[in-house]
Write a structure and sequence with these properties.
Helix content is about 20%, strand content about 20%. The protein is built from 2 helices and 4 strands; from the N terminus they run αββαββ. It has helices at about 1-20, 50-60, and strands at about 25-35, 40-45, 70-75, 100-105.
Length: about 130
């Protein structure tokens, strides 16, 4: 009987973590740069999406002169070695989304290749 109630409680916690945030205001902590321990918090209503958090971050200039389209958000990984998987902007926030981190969408720029310059060809005298 005890194992059943423990399992039921665990299932209820899991369901609550996946349910949209209820009505009311919620604080979402966003890590901007973990190495610098730089983070901020935004307040969003229940039913808010990842896009709502991004818009608030951009509006508050927490990220400098950055637009919401310039970055993604991911659930903050529990380990620095764990990958941060970007969330879709349409993702409705749940309790699992109360700790997020920014993710740079921009792929590193490919190095510019210099145009090939033909080596000078030495003229040989005609024989």
């Amino acid at each position: 009987e005890t194992s059943v109630s423990v399992a039921a409680a665990a299932a209820a916690r899991e369901a609550a973590a996946q349910a949209p945030l209820p009505a009311g205001e919620h604080e979402v902590s966003v890590t901007i740069d973990a190495a610098l321990d730089l983070a901020t918090a935004v307040r969003v209503p229940g039913g808010a999406t990842v896009a709502d958090v991004k818009e608030r971050l951009a509006a508050e200039h927490s990220l400098g002169d950055v637009r919401a389209a310039d970055f993604s958000l991911a659930i903050a990984p529990s380990s620095p070695l764990a990958p941060a998987v970007p969330l879709a902007d349409s993702t409705v926030l749940t309790r699992a989304h109360l700790r997020l981190q920014t993710v740079n969408d921009q792929a590193p720029a490919a190095p510019k290749e210099e145009p090939a310059v033909a080596a000078p060809v030495a003229a040989t005298p005609a024989e």
